[in-house]
Amino acid sequence: MANEVQLRVNDSMRTVTAAPDTPLLYVLTDDLALQGPRFGCGLGQCGCCSVLVDGLEVRSCITPLSRVVGKSVTTLEGLPAYYAARKKLSRVPDLHPLQEALVAEQAVQCGYCYNGQIIKGAELLFKTPQPTEAQIRTAMNGHICRCGTYPRIMAAIQRAAKAMTTTNAASTTEEVSRA
Amino acid sequence: MHDSDTHDVDGTPIVDRREFLKISGAVVVSIGVGNIAEAQAPAGAGAELQRGLVSGPPDPAALDSYLAVHSNNTASIYLGYVDLGQGGPTALCQVAADELDLDFSQISIVRNDTFTSTNGFTAASRTAGIGGVETRVAAAEARRVLLGLASERLKAPVQDLTVAKGVVSVKGAPQRSVTYGELLGDKPFNRKFEPVRYDARGAATPRTNTDVAPLKSPSEYKVVGTRVPRPDMHDKVRGTYEFMQHVRVPGMLHGRVVWPQGQFAGSVTPKVVSIDESSIKDIPGVRIVRKLNFVGVAAEREWDAVRASRQLKVTWEPFAAVLPGHEGIHDSFRKGTTNDIVVFNSGDANAAFNQAGLKVASATYRGPYEAHGTMAPNCALADIKADSAMVMSSSQGIFQIRDTVAQLTGLPADKVRVQYYPGSNTYGLSCYTDVGEAAAIMSHELGKPVRVQLSRQDEFGWDNYGPAHLADMRGAIDANGKLVAFEYQAWGYDGNGVGTASRLLALGPSQGGARGGGGGARGSGGGQRGGGAAPAQGGSFVGGLYQIRISQNDMYDVPNRRLIEHRLDGRGYLKLGPLRAPLDPPYFFAQEGMIDELAYLAKLDPWEFRKRNISDRRWLGVLEAAANAAKWTPRVSASKVSSARVVTGRGIAVGTHHLQPNQGDRITYAAAVVDVEVNKDNGRVIAKHVYGAMDCGLAINPGIVESQIVGMSVHGTSLALKEELQFNQTNVTSLDWNSYQTLRFGEHPAVTPIVVQQLNEKSTGAGEEVLPAVVGAIGNAFFDATGVRLRQFPLTPRRVLAVLKSAG
């Protein structure tokens, strides 16, 4: 039966009334009107619904609401702010560097799977800031793209990794100058 | 640079939906950029003349049907081509910008809507080829009207005027200027003109009126031919792009269909025996919709609808076990009763094959059924009222779904308004019609707006599949490696089905053509006018495509050619529908495989063999472009087969998307070279690098064409190596991403896209043609690597191990 549940989503506390077995996806899309995570298979197979829970990518279509209580959920909408917090940047950028890189590579076609591609790619870049091609292939393998844009996502992840090195250097400088 | 406010290629959703709502009485919430805003009429919306007040399509001879110029000196175009994720509308904006002397950023395309859009159908690579011409002609006409107005305003003859960014000024006196917005801002053109008309097949009717606005010559293009970034990309990476799946309206219910898991043969209509309503009694407030054999559930909360759809116990009449199963499909074709049609015969193929001194090769090629595999299962929202209806849909043809909904609800078509919201990739007839029907039926029954989201299993199980293919190929060459005769015998059926919900309601052709056999596809000879053994005159889906294989668009110079179609009764098989380059991947797998076999027989390098047998410069051009990019080293295929456990090979092939015979001037030329690696121990084939070249005439946006080549190269690799629809004797069993395999991120090849730009040629399609070339080239690369030919795709590990074993 439906309960009132408190959730931390994109760094703000939200209260929803939903049965605890409700997959997180339906709460994010129907109750919180978020457009990042989206329905692709409902089976955890494709990655369209991915979100970060305490920084780790999970499939919101098969994650019951009860499982994320007390944890921090980040959706695509909250990714730039989450990135800024993780990297201790003084300003929240408009986009995560991977989002910028995907535009620079003109990677997107239909774009439906890109929520998951970006969430997973961002998770990879947090864990492995300079991933090899093999590491990218392994990390991203659970995210299907039927437009066949994998080569450009690959290029964008590599581009973002480079850009983030520069950003990190810049933000370090900023920290220093402020100190 | 990007500005989503002034340049949303997908349209101006809020304005459009508001316009609609005034008529339907519904209230729509637009989930926009991070907030929820109730739609309300914008200031000045009434200035949009009568647009959006009556059902379309609007008069094709009225300039206002295509374009509007706004007070802020921007323009909107209203063409009926939707963005299927491939960037077509960006190209149309580029065309309009050049012809109107506007910047790209000053043009936007309005959301497709049956009350405002012209009647385009976004398929078969028509957007650039046809939509581009329609846009150019209308924009040129608009510019002529605007210059006439400017001439009066500036008191200067038209020939003394010049235009840049929509600012008209007198040559040599730039201070004497006026903007398009000042001249016409949101007022109608009220001008008739003669558009270029196209018939249902896409053939153009030349204009007869000589008083038409002259079109710019390619040398005057500033925006066309450049790599304008796609304006939808920013919203897509940010998550603010509104897909059909995102649309919600107040008071709506979430609906789910309850259909059998996986369709059965076309002759078997699913029949409900009973529904146990108590099976969902623990889910409060669920409404069950049953109409004949259509079953759906609806609830206020989406999860309740999902749970109810999974839990509701529906007993279906047992399905007859009449399908051959995916392993048996080709034998079933071969054994089936066929209507044999000599579709094409030039020269005397029979006699030619019997000539002395020729080398002849013959072989059978096979391909599987394939699914569209949309990333997003289709979704639709319908609000059916007593006297009007509104439907939001991802259909490639909004007027088609409008007419279907009218039929289902009994409303006049002009009272049904359909608006397009993009879904994910579709590449043809995925289940967007089925879900639109379902939403309409459920809303009609429940009296509330209903949003229906298909499940992954619904989408895979009730798709209109790409056809399985069986072909006997035969070719003969002379001592100089010149083709003398080529024959293609193909087995297939006409299975362009009706929507699932219509089928369950026993409506439409599935019932009409059912004599004795129940529903099903449009009956095997459905498009075969006159029947008998006479050559069919087009019409039917698959049959129509077969006809033109080696007759119309053939790239090889062959004096004696024959095409025989063995047409089966489709009622014992699965539904079919157009799937990106329909039938071309299996056809080119077979054609280019046989060409390769002949090259090998001639002891010639496969590129050299093709050069010897092709004279058309554009076909030679794409072959050369792909081969040069790949640094092709001439050698006979399989002349360096290694005994290593992991071997490499390289293949080459041409490809295109075959058009109807009377569209012969819109051919796109494609070629691919693919490098593969074959692991003889585990049978795994990996495509390492795809070099894809395409000549689509004037590439309006070479950047978008390149991204299409990248996508087709990956998709083609997926078809060649992975995709195969599975089904047993009763029904389809590929219902998810495990049981329907697709190429994964880790398996993707590197891709080098090459656009062969032809500034002075007509723009043709760019979203289908490299696909079949890649499938053919992978088959040929496998032979080069192993010295063994595998004539059935996908080249799965099991098939690879079997063919290597049987070859010793």
Summed up, the helix count of chain A is: 6
Please give the share of residues in helix of chain B: 25-40%
Report strand order across the widest sheet of chain A.
2-1-5-3-4
Poorly predicted regions of chain A:
172-179
CATH homologous superfamily of the largest domain in chain B?
Aldehyde oxidase/xanthine dehydrogenase, molybdopterin binding domain
CATH topology (level 3) name of the largest domain in chain A? DNA polymerase, domain 1
Quick summary of this structure?
The complex is a heterodimer of chains A (179) and B (808). Chain A is of the alpha+beta class and 179 residues long. Chain A folds into 2 domains: 3-76, Beta-grasp domain (Ubiquitin-like (UB roll)); 79-178, DNA polymerase, domain 1, CATH 1.10.150.
What would your notes on this structure say?
Chain A is an alpha+beta fold and 179 residues long. Chain A has two domains: 3-76, Ubiquitin-like (UB roll); 79-178, Orthogonal Bundle (DNA polymerase, domain 1), CATH 1.10.150. Helix content of chain A is 42%, strand content 14%. A five-stranded mixed sheet of chain A has the order 2-1-5-3-4, sandwiched between helices. The N and C termini of chain A lie far apart (53 Å). Chain B has 808 residues and is α+β, with helices and mostly antiparallel strands. Chain B folds into three domains: 13-226, Aldehyde Oxidoreductase, domain 4 (2-Layer Sandwich); 253-320 and 373-461, Aldehyde oxidase/xanthine dehydrogenase, molybdopterin binding domain (Aldehyde Oxidoreductase, domain 4, 2-Layer Sandwich); 580-808, Aldehyde Oxidoreductase, domain 4 (2-Layer Sandwich). Chain B is built from 20 helices and 28 strands. In chain B, strands 13-14-11-21-18-19-20 form a seven-stranded mixed sheet, with helices on both faces. In chain B, strand 4, helix 2 (88-100) and strand 5 form a beta-alpha-beta unit. Chain B is globular. Mean pLDDT of chain B is 85; it is low at 1-48 and 508-553. The interface between A and B is large, with 56 and 62 residues.
